[in-house]
Structure formats: structure tokens, C-alpha cells
Design brief:
disordered C terminus, 3 domains, five-stranded mixed β-sheet, single chain, Rossmann fold, 20 helices, HATPase_C_sf, Heat Shock Protein 90, alpha/beta
Length: about 475
Amino acid sequence: MLGSMRTGLSHTLETVLSQALARDVLHGNYVPRTAPCRIEEALGNETLGIPGAPETNHRFPIRTRPAVGFPVIDVDRRLLTLVYRNAISNACKYGKSGGIVSTEIELEDHTLTFRVINEPGPRHADLCKLTRVNEQVFSKGRRLHLPSDMVDSQNATARVSKGDGGWIMKRCAECMQGECSIRFEPERTVFELTCPAPARFDEAFLEDADLSVDVWAVGVEDCEFQRMKLAEIFDKLRIPRARVTILGESDEELKSIGSTLSILFARLPPYARVLFVVDENLDLKWPSTETISGSYMAHCVRKELPLEADARLLALVRSSNDSESDLKLYLDRTHGFLNKAPAEPERIAILRMWIQRFGFKSATPIRQKDKDSKAIAMPAPSKTEPNNNAVAASEIQRLMRLLDKSMHEMPWSELWRWLHRVKGIVGVTRPSNAAGTDLANRLIHVIESTRGDDRPVDFVAIWEEIKGMLDDYVRTELMPQNPESGE
């Protein structure tokens, strides 16, 4: 008795959550999230709504290829489960009453395909005559037939759904970068979903791949030095420079990101994808005290884009703030986070997130590119570190002069903005040698200790300590061949 109640409550909760998820997808409010998933967790018999029933395996057989050792895959489990549950439900309602409903699951070239196959139901012969079947089945408000147990009911039309089930499944598939289809064959009906589902891969693949083919990049940064770093990151990904746009030099550019991306998507071929990297704290020029949140901007831009355009976008926020609450905010609004003080090369981090979102085929293996005559020849990235360090040193010194001059008249919120920018530059340029790393870490720690709504009472003394460390950092780490540059 208690077990039956628990099962019923669980199924009710699943139904409510599925309806909420479908609503979010249809209104463009759902952000797909891929994560490692075992296929039996998303498509196992427990999703059929009759867990433990003795006839489950007989009536609802599931076959996989490979038959054993099916790998863990990166996929949005919630979307996958929703589509599968709907497919099973439709097969039971519209197929042969009590008939076999089988599932075939295949994984090939990091692409998942599952098919739900049911025996013919009433009026199946009429469905086989349809000529534009996918257009009709997956359109909003289209209903081609009644459930098999309601065909003879005089009140059937009052009891069936609005006919949006196929449309919802199509939108879910698009959110997963995939597509769905249906075939009415003489002896069966086959629903099929195909979507990227990268198997958990050997990280060595990331060393031999790039984004040189069919990828455009947009970066947004308000700091000259950080714009140079973005350009360097895109170079290391081997995205052709003609396909790279970096914005943020003026307030006008910062405020027009949405229109810039919309225009870009309108001009791109339908198979092209876009890498969008935005700084979290975009400060408008002095004397303005306004700061634009890059992650919120990305969130707004994504809501404005058509669903098919958003499905071709990887939006990442870049920041030196990586607290648990910060990360939750970023991931609620975008597809991923890049730390300005990275523990691994940004190129590797971006490629990993790119493959998780779009699948292995979306990246270009270098060995394949060398054999492909259509691949774009790219010049070897230039050695920009000395120039980057010079720009970083110049920017740190400019900010030190600004803070010195405005120490007593600038509001604390504004002072903190500039301190935060200093922290970001130090984090990005943190050297690999032990002494330099220690100095950079101490600088970041001292600056971070001043975080808060109010100016620390001893901030003047703290600032003198920070200035001394910055002078040492510029002289010994950024401009070691020119000791006078830090003075």
C-alpha cells in the first residue's frame, strides 16, 4: 500500500516537472545543460511509468548498440527523458492497444539516435498515405489521430490534448542541437531522435583540435589588455581573424552587443556556430559609475535570439570572481565560465565546453584538417606575451595613478571597480615561476580582502601596501628587462 502511494506520488511529481520543463522550452526560458549521463538513467524502464511491472521487459524491450559497455555520454538528461517519455506515451496511445513498444538506442561518432517503435493502431493505413508527415506531426496544434482506446468514444474530442505534443518534442530536440522525425510504415510506426551526445572523451583529443572551420567569435571586454588576451585566446583556437569581432573600446559598443550578434547571425550560413565570450564586469567610461553585467547581457541576448540561432551559440562569461554564488549566477545565464586566473589554458577549457555542447564533429582535428583541402590555412599564432606584458604594465600603472588621484573623492563602489580590474590583470598575467606566482597570489588576496559595501577604515594603509607590491610585480614580472618601467 505504502509502496503504491510512493510510486503514485513520484509519477505525479514527474508529470508536473515535465509540464514545467516543456513550458520553459516553448517560451525560450530553458537553458540546456549537458552533464555526464548513463543512458539507462534517462531511458530505462523506470521512465515508462510502470516500474517493477513483470510485463515491462516483454512489452517495452530496449536494445542498445553497443549491446554492452554503453559509454557515459554528455547530454541534457531532462530534455532527453522528456522526449522519450512523450514518445513512449504516444506509442501506447496511438499504437496497437497492448502492443509491443520497443526502443532502439545507438551511439556512433558521438551522435545518439534512439527510436521508439510501435505496432500499427487504428486508422494506420490512412497515416501511411501522408506525404508531408514530419511537417504535419511536429507542427503546433496538429492532431492526426485519436488514442486507440478512444476511437469509438463519442466524447473523444473533449478528452484529447491540444495536439502540441509533437511540436514540444521538436522544440526539445532543437534545444539539444538535434532533430526528430517519424515514419508510418505498413507494419509499424517509428519515432526517431538524433542529437549530439559526446562520450566521455580522452582529454588528449583537446590538444589536437581547433575551431578553425565554420566558427565565428565575438568577444566583449572594456579593458584594452583583456581585449588583447581575448584576441590571443581566439588565435590559439585558430579561428580565422576575419571571423573574429572584439568589442568594448567604447560605451556605444558595450550597449549594442545584442544588435551586433543579431546582425551576425542574420549574415551567417545556417551551419555556422558562434563562440561568444563576455567579461562579467563591463565598466562604462569615467565619470560614469555604471557597470554592465556581462552574464546578464548574454542572458538578454540569448532570449532575443531565435531558438535556432541560440542552438548554434556557446556563450561564456569570463571573470576573476569564482565564488560558489558567482558561478551559480553565471551558469544560470550562460553556458559556461572562464576564469581570468585559469588553472588550465583557456583554449582547452573552451574546447571542452564546445564539444560538450555541440559534439565531437563540431571541432576540427588538426590531423584531419591537414588532409582536407577545404580547411582554412592559418598562420602560426604570433608570440604576443612580451607585448601583452607591456600593455598590462602600462594599464596597471595607469590605474595606480587614477586611484592615487581620486582616493579621497571617488566613491568606494568606483574605487572597488578599478581595484577589481587590477586584480583581473594580475590574475591573467600570473607567471609560472614560484616567486612571481607567490607575489601575484598575495596581491590578489590583499585586494580581495577589501571587498565589501563600505570602504575599509584602514584603506589608505592597505592601498600603500598594494602599491608597493604592484611596483614590484611590474618591475620583476612584467618588465624584467627594463627595471625603470615601473617607476
